[in-house]
Write a structure and sequence with these properties.
The complex is a heterodimer.
Chain A: H1 11-21, E1 28-36, H2 53-70, E2 74-77, H3 96-106, E3 108-116, E4 123-127, E5 135-137, H4 150-166, E6 171-175, E7 188-193, H5 206-226, E8 231-233
Parallel strand pairs in A: 1-2, 1-3, 3-7, 4-6, 5-8
Antiparallel strand pairs in A: 4-7
Helix pairs in contact in A: 2-5, 4-5
Chain B: H1 3-41, E1 52-60, E2 65-73, H2 79-95, E3 109-116, E4 121-124, E5 139-142, E6 158-164, H3 166-170, H4 176-193, E7 197-204, E8 222-223, E9 228-229, E10 233-234
Parallel strand pairs in B: 6-7
Antiparallel strand pairs in B: 1-2, 3-6, 4-5, 7-8, 9-10
The chains are: A alpha/beta, B alpha+beta.
Chain lengths: 244, 237
C-alpha cells in the first residue's frame, strides 16, 4: 500500500501552528513604570516664570511612587533626579528610546509617560494613535510596538478617566502621537498634568497633585487584575515565503 | 533712349522699390507676430491659478479643536509648490494677532517633497557577476517592507515629506496638545486640498527629528486624513 504524499501546509495551518508554538509573554501585574518627561538640559514646557515641566513631572512621579508602593506595586522610574542620564553610563543623556527600552524590559502592567502643560485644566490622558493590531509580532518594528497594546491602553485610559472624574477632577481623554509612546510594549498612556484652574501656579498645588496621584493609583489597583497580554504572532506573515 | 522711355523706366523702378518695401514690411510684421506668439507660451513666472476658495484646517488652543476656514487665494498650479504655499499660508494665519493657535511669525517649511507610493529603493545585486574596476555594480529593486509600509489606497497615492524649518520648530510652544494640533492642522490642510497625498512624514532642516517641541512624534508616518469632525471638533479630544 502506497503512502499518500504529504501536502504542503496552507497559510491558515502555518499560522495556527506558529501561534501554538509562541505562548503569550507573561507580564508583571504588580510592576508600574513611571517616566517623568524631560530632564537635564531638556526642561520641557515653561509652565510659569518659575516652574518648568521637568520639575512638575518629577514631583508627580514621586507622589505616585509613594502611593503605588504603599499599595504593593513595584515602581520603576526612568529618572529620579533633575538630570536624565542612562543608568549604565551616568554621563550619557537618556534618550527617548532608552526610556522606552527601560519600560519594555520590565514587562509592566502599566507604563505612564508623565508630562505637564500650562494650557487647559485637569488631567489629559492620551493613548497611542496607532491602529490596533490583533497580536504582538515577535520581531515587530520598533516604532509601532504599541500597536498590539493599543486596545489595553485605551481600556486603561477609560478606567483612569473614570477614577479621576469620580475625584471631581477635569479630565480630557484622547489619542496622540507622543514619543516614545508608540514604541512601548505594555499598556501605556501619556498622563499630562494641567493646572487646576486658569491660574497656572495651581499646577504646583500639593493637595491637587496628591488628589491626582491618589485617583491614578486607585485606578491602577483595579487595572492590575484586568490587564491582558496580547497574543503573539509569528514574525513571518502567512503567505509570505522565507527567502532562501 | 528717348526722354519718355527714361521716365517710364524711372517710374517702374520707383514702383518696384515701393513694392519691395511693402513686402519687407509685411514679412517683418509676420516674423514679429511669430516671436510674440512663442513668447506667450514660454513660462516667465511660476504658473498660478486664479483666486479660488482654499480650505484650511485651523487649530484652536482654547478648546483643542480644529475647524475649517476658507480663504480666497491664488496658488501655484505645480503640486509641490502648491503644498508649500498652503503651509506657508497656514503658518501666516497662526502668526496673525488674535490667532487661536499663536505661533511665531516666519516661514515654517523649507520644502515639500511628494514621493509616489509604495516607496521602493535599490540595493546592490550580490548575485550579479562582480563588476570590474570602474564599472557600476548591478542593482536590484527593493520592494517595500510589508510590515512597515502602507500601500497606496488608490493608484497615484503619494507620500508628502515636509521639511520644516529649524527656526519654526525651535520656537514652537511645548505641550502634547499644542504640538499635536499643529501637526493635525498641517495634515488636515494638505488632505483637504491635495487628496492624492495619503501619508505625511516630517523632517527638520532635512534631517529626522524625534519630536516637534518635546512631545509630538515626528518620526512616525502619519496617514493623511480629515482632522476635522462635525465641523468643529478635532480628533485630539
Amino acid at each position: 500500500m502506497q503512502s499518500q504524499p504529504k501536502l504542503p501546509l496552507t497559510s491558515a495551518e502555518r499560522t495556527r501552528s506558529a501561534l501554538a508554538s509562541i505562548p503569550a509573554l507573561p507580564f508583571n501585574r504588580t510592576t508600574i513604570v513611571l517616566d517623568p518627561g524631560h530632564g537635564g538640559t531638556d526642561s520641557g514646557a515653561r509652565i510659569t516664570d518659575r516652574t518648568v515641566e521637568k520639575d512638575v513631572t518629577l514631583a508627580l512621579a514621586f507622589r505616585l511612587r509613594s502611593l503605588l508602593t504603599a499599595r504593593g506595586f513595584t515602581v520603576v522610574l526612568t529618572r529620579e533626579k533633575s538630570e536624565a542620564n542612562t543608568p549604565t553610563a551616568p554621563f550619557m543623556p537618556l534618550t527617548l528610546d532608552d526610556r522606552a527600552g527601560m519600560a519594555n524590559h520590565e514587562r509592566a502592567s502599566a507604563c505612564l509617560l508623565l508630562h505637564a502643560t500650562p494650557s487647559g485644566t485637569g488631567v489629559h490622558l492620551y493613548a497611542s494613535e496607532l491602529e490596533a493590531r490583533t497580536g504582538e509580532v515577535t520581531a515587530g518594528p520598533w516604532l509601532t510596538g504599541q500597536a498590539a497594546w493599543v486596545g489595553q491602553s485605551r481600556a486603561m485610559a477609560n478606567e483612569m478617566g473614570e477614577a479621576l472624574t469620580r475625584s471631581r477632577l477635569p479630565v480630557v481623554n484622547g489619542a496622540a502621537s507622543v514619543r516614545p509612546l508608540d514604541s512601548l510594549t505594555c499598556p501605556a498612556l501619556v498622563v499630562e498634568l494641567a493646572p487646576l484652574s486658569d491660574d497656572a501656579e495651581t499646577i504646583n498645588d500639593q493637595s491637587y497633585q496628591q488628589q491626582v496621584a491618589q485617583a491614578i493609583s486607585g485606578a491602577l489597583v483595579a487595572w492590575q487584575t484586568t490587564a491582558q497580554a496580547p497574543t503573539r504572532l509569528p514574525a513571518v506573515l502567512p503567505g509570505v515565503e522565507n527567502r532562501p | 533712349m528717348s526722354l519718355r522711355g527714361r521716365r517710364i523706366v524711372f517710374w517702374i523702378m520707383i514702383a518696384g522699390i515701393i513694392a519691395m518695401g511693402v513686402v519687407l514690411f509685411l514679412h517683418r510684421q509676420q516674423a514679429r507676430g511669430r516671436v510674440e506668439h512663442l513668447a506667450d507660451d514660454l513660462p516667465m513666472d511660476a504658473p498660478y491659478t486664479n483666486e479660488q476658495p482654499v480650505t484650511f484646517a485651523v487649530a484652536n488652543d482654547d478648546d483643542g479643536t480644529i475647524a475649517t476656514t476658507t480663504r480666497q487665494l491664488a496658488l501655484p498650479t505645480e503640486t509641490t509648490a502648491r503644498a508649500r504655499a498652503l503651509l506657508d499660508h497656514l503658518a501666516a494665519e497662526y502668526a496673525l494677532p488674535g490667532s487661536g493657535h499663536p505661533l511665531q511669525p516666519g516661514a515654517a517649511v523649507n520644502e515639500v517633497f511628494l514621493v509616489p507610493l509604495p516607496v521602493v529603493g535599490h540595493a546592490v545585486d550580490s548575485s550579479a557577476a562582480a563588476a570590474g574596476a570602474g564599472e557600476h555594480s548591478a542593482t536590484v529593486l527593493v520592494a517595500p517592507d510589508p510590515a512597515t509600509t502602507v500601500n497606496p489606497q488608490t493608484p497615484g497615492g503619494e507620500l508628502a515629506v515636509i521639511d520644516l524649518r529649524g527656526s519654526f520648530v525651535n520656537e514652537h510652544p511645548s505641550g502634547v496638545e499644542v504640538e499635536m494640533l499643529t501637526l493635525l492642522s498641517i495634515i488636515g490642510t494638505l488632505h483637504a486640498n491635495l487628496p492624492q497625498i495619503e501619508q505625511v512624514r516630517f523632517l527638520v532642516d532635512g534631517r529626522p527629528r524625534e519630536t516637534l517641541a518635546g512631545h509630538a512624534d515626528l518620526l512616525r508616518t502619519y496617514p493623511s486624513r480629515e482632522t476635522v469632525t462635525r465641523g468643529t471638533q478635532s480628533s485630539l479630544r
